[in-house]
Every structure is written in C-alpha cells, then in structure tokens.
# Entry
Amino acid sequence: MRLTTKGRFAVTAMIDVAMRQHLGPVTLASISQRQHISLSYLEQLFGKLRRHELVESVRGPGGGYSLARKPEEISIADVIIAVDEPLDATQCGGKENCHGEDGEGRCMTHDLWAALNTRMVEFLDSVNLKTMVDQNLAQGVSIEEVAVVRKPVAPMPVTKPVKVKAPNSVFNLAQNMG
# Structure
C-alpha cells in the first residue's frame, strides 16, 4: 500500500490553504508556486475537494479558495478520500477475492491487510488540518504571502494623433479641387 502523489498533493495543498486563508482566499497559482505542484493538477484536485464541500471558491479578482469548514473539522482522511485516493492495503480491494474472480477466496494475509486498512483510516481520521498547521508553525514554516510572479505587461506605446490634410470624403475632395 502506498499513498500516491494525488493524496500527498491534496493534503499538502489543503494545509497550505489552512495556513493562509486568514489572509483571504488562496489562489491555486500561489499554492503551485510555494508547493511546486502543477497548476493544472491543483485545478483537478480542487474541483474534487469543492464537490466534497471541503473548500469554497471565490471568483474574480482577489478570488481563490478557502476552507468550507474549520480546520479542526477536516481530517486528513477526508481530504484523501475526497480526491478518490484508495486507502486499501489488501490486494483484492476489500472484495475478499484475493486470488481473482475464479480463485479460492481470501488469501492467508487478508485479515492482516484489512486490519491495517482500519488502523490507517483511524489514524488519518484522527489528524486534522489544524493539527498539521500547528505542527508546521512549530517547525518554523512561515506564512508570509508570496506574491504570484506575473510577467510584466508591456505598456501600450503612446501614439500622437497625426493630422492629415487630405480630404476625408469624396465630397470634400471635389470641393478642394474646384
């Protein structure tokens, strides 16, 4: 059993939001920059987190994400399950057909792995985002808001209007000729 990057990145991003949401909505671009997670990957993860009502989004300038509940009410298990991360150490996915569909049923170690699953979920359910924020702050992680580096936009060139002494219509042209 191993936790994939999907679960790791979701937990990391949620801790980032929990640490900085007091400053206002947290942008995915700023999380991406601080945590070195692809912006498109964060967009996918936060879509799932929003559907599971773990985060709320604010659109427009100054928009971003904030937690939908208090940090102490969101467990790490909630985050991992929301992004469809399987928490299962059994080979059969809990179906008790470890030897395949035509096999002899459960393997000899099925109960061991099922017990590990239970302990794993219990542990991850006992740790919440507030605990992780407090732990990170105690370790000296700073929460200064890092401005998103944006490419400067070149100013529009200033053009002075050009006075043209040419007539602007056929009628004016005829008057000037005659």
